[in-house]
Structures are given as structure tokens and as C-alpha cells.
Fold this sequence. Notes:
Elements: H1 2-6
InterPro entries: Znf_WRKY19 (IPR056866)
Protein name: WRKY19-like zinc finger domain-containing protein
Amino acid sequence: EEKRRSRECKVDGCVNYIINKGLCFRHGGGKKCSVQECRSSAKNAGLCWRHGGSVKCVVEGCERRGKSRGLCWAHGGGTKCSTPLCTKVAVSNGCCWAHGGGKRCAYEGCKKAAYERTHNYCVKHH
């Protein structure tokens, strides 16, 4: 409990994890995309994925984000789930979403999928 508390945002009442400066993304932690009016997190060169801050898949015509070996998940990039007979891509902890991988929404009591693009909240709570 104490370890988690030390990584919480310093804004009173906020229990989100800090990114930097003691703040979560919602309260000003982390770098924002340098494109005017964009509120997404910067990934590379001060830009978010939508504005060119990540590597695109090397397959011609594919606009998805490249993972491992320059390939997106659909074209074989990323790590496969470690559960026997599962062919899905692992999202974290070596597992796909169905087998326990991935982030859950930071909203208390919500167990839905959370995404980086929604700042660790599900679509409903973003």
C-alpha cells in the first residue's frame, strides 16, 4: 500500500500514477504533443503517434504503428501470448488481453481495457 501511495499524483484526491514532476498525465505530468491543440502524449521528437511521433509498419500501404521488427501487430510484429495454443499478441506480462495481459481502467472499480491514448482510462471514463 505504501509503495503505491508514493507513486500517486500529488494533486489532492488523485490516485493516478505519476509520470513525472509528481503529476499524472491529467494534471500536467509527461510531455504533450507539440502540435497546437493536440492533448495526446508525445512519443518521439515531441510528437504523438497521430502526428508522426512513432515508427509506422514497414509493410507498404500500412498506416499502423510498427512494433517489433518494424511490423505492426497485424503483420506479425509484437510478442505472441505465452498461453499454449493462443495465437494472439501479448500486450503485457507475456499475455494477451484475454489471458491477463494489458492495462485496466484507472477509474476505481472499472475493469475495462485502458489505453495509452486515453491516458490509462477506458473509453467511457476518458
